[in-house]
Amino acid sequence: MPSWIGAIQNAIDYMEDHMLEELAIEDIAAAANASVFHFQRTFALLTDSSVGEYIRRRRLTLAAHELAHSSTKVIELALKYGYDTPESFAKAFRRQHGISPSEAKKASCCFTSYSRLVIQVSLKGADPMKYRVEERESFRVIGVKRSFSCTNGENLIEIPQLWKEIHENGTNDRLLTMNNGVIKGIMGICEPGPDSMMTYWAACSYSGETPEGLASTAVPASKWVIFEVRGAMPDAMQEAWKKIYSEWFPASGFEHAGTPDLEVYTEDDAYSSDYYSEIWIPVKK
């Protein structure tokens, strides 16, 4: 089993062993020997669930089982599984199971149950992934940067809103006209931050003085694995990320280098079925 798959499994085991305690994302990521940003991103790609969703679903699954097979009171279970009040517990319970906690005590109730996760490697990719490996010196980018929280997948909601904003206010077109650097196209750059934060850039490669109203940064020198992505946004990009982490990384012999990833978007119609874009991942052996 590749070490990073084992690391994610270690984090899952840590969550399960401490399910009735207050779980801090920093401690969970530490169990995987990863930064909070890279752990949460990898976990979401492999499981289609945020860390917070996994914990909530598992706690409510365990609570339903205990309600159905014991005489424990609802108020006791609410506190046991991390809810401040019986009302908040009942609301979450009904959202997952479709019934109230009191109804769960009755015989023949059906629950929505989520089992303990076991991460497995998929090496069966039916469609080949086209990629190339390049070494690049550091290069400069300009653009708009924002800080987002990775907690409960907040970044996944807010990043598309950023792109919508820069398309509507003309910033995207402005970046396209200023794109005079080593990489052609508009980039989405994911930069890990402290704790559960990340910095995200909508940017272009640029050589010259930083234009007014924009920020600039340097992308570190790296060995890059550059994946070709074909298909309409955002589905093609999301599917490519999932295949990279579930199929390519386990068989590649590479590990993520821990520096920013790039998504590179061309000027063509992003909603076309043959739209071309790229994913750049910094790697190390």
From TrEMBL:
Q: Name one Pfam family in it.
A: Cass2
Keyword Nucleus included in the entry's annotation: no
**Domain named HTH araC/xylS-type: which ranges?**
9-107
This protein's source sits in the domain of life called: Bacteria
SUPFAM superfamilies assigned to the protein according to its UniProt record, in alphabetical order: Homeodomain-like (SSF46689), Probable bacterial effector-binding domain (SSF55136)
Q: A single Gene Ontology molecular function, please?
A: sequence-specific DNA binding
Q: Does the keyword Transcription apply?
A: yes
Q: Which keywords has UniProt assigned to this entry? A: DNA-binding, Transcription, Transcription regulation
Question: What protein does this entry describe?
Answer: AraC family transcriptional regulator
State the species of origin: Metabacillus indicus
Lineage, please?
Answer: Bacteria, Bacillati, Bacillota, Bacilli, Bacillales
